[in-house]
Specification:
With about 270 residues, this protein is of the alpha+beta class. It is built from four helices and 18 strands.
Length: about 270
């Protein structure tokens, strides 16, 4: 089986084209293992679509299928454009979260960066979903291990919960992240974004991804963090979101649409026996 390894700011993916009679969940677990496989945060599968130019399926490292992935969609767009599978610089990609519209920016025949419409943010508690009698879950106090944290939850293709912090301490993130991810508040689990506000136009983020763990970057997490920061008056609507390996630009327009822009890279290509 041929594959391509790609990443957006270190958030890495294995990209393959559709296979017959394969359990993609099992394949993702095998391939994404960093010790016994290729190693990645997720598996992206290229499939034909009846409603868009192409279809993207996303499987997390634990085998669960995700509705949407911001950095994954940007890697996916580079892959299908550079291989001539889709010959449009602005394309329609079918996902479980609906059709998204990545736009590739090309230099010397190679995709240098990708901008993608990420879907409008959803704050309705029942649609995130979150078990709450409140219509929205914004800056709500929640007690975890005897300590109260202010949580803000929204859906940007997938559920995200934002925690604003003074410092991005990895030990704290690794301890608190899975407790929020698997809290009974979230029947489908949640991604957890720890956000440090630098100024009105810059935030630093670390994301604990549902089904993955701590990642170097997260596109939907960047969007959710930027929107939550703006809603709470901490930043402007256009924000640079800084991760360990670089930054992404998030633009939240007045019509409620969100756009995510940043670089993507191919790491290597290979072949592996199944």
């Amino acid at each position: 089986m041929k594959f391509t390894k790609m990443h957006g700011l270190g958030n890495d993916f294995i990209v393959i084209e559709a296979l017959e009679n394969v359990d993609y969940s099992e394949l993702a677990i095998k391939l994404c293992d960093r010790h016994f496989g290729i190693g990645a945060d997720g598996l992206l599968v290229v499939e034909p679509s009846g409603i868009a130019d192409i279809r993207m399926r996303i499987f997390n490292a634990d085998g669960s299928e995700a509705e949407m992935c911001g950095n994954g969609s940007r890697c996916f767009a580079k892959y299908v454009y550079e291989r001539g599978i889709v010959k449009k610089e602005k394309m329609a990609v079918e996902t479980l979260a609906g059709v998204i519209m990545p736009e590739v920016f090309v230099e010397n025949g190679e995709v240098e960066s990708v901008k993608v419409y990420m879907s409008n943010p959803i704050f309705e508690a029942s649609k995130i979903p979150i078990k709450s009698d409140k219509q929205k879950f914004i800056n709500e106090p929640v007690k975890i291990d005897g300590k109260v944290y202010k949580l803000t939850s929204l859906r940007v293709g997938v559920p995200h919960t934002i925690v604003f912090v003074e410092s991005l301490d990895e030990n704290m993130i690794k301890e608190l992240g899975p407790k929020i991810e698997k809290s009974s508040l979230f029947p489908q689990g949640t991604n957890v974004d720890f956000v440090k506000v630098e100024d009105k136009e810059n935030i630093s983020v670390r994301t604990w991804e549902r089904g993955v763990g701590l990642t170097l970057a997260c596109g939907s997490g960047a969007c959710a963090s930027a929107v939550a920061s703006a809603v709470l008056g901490k930043t402007e609507r256009n924000v640079n979101v800084h991760f360990k390996a670089g930054k992404l630009l998030v633009e939240w327009l007045e019509d409620n649409s969100i756009y995510l822009s940043g670089s993507v890279e191919e790491v290597f290509r290979g072949e592996i026996e199944l």
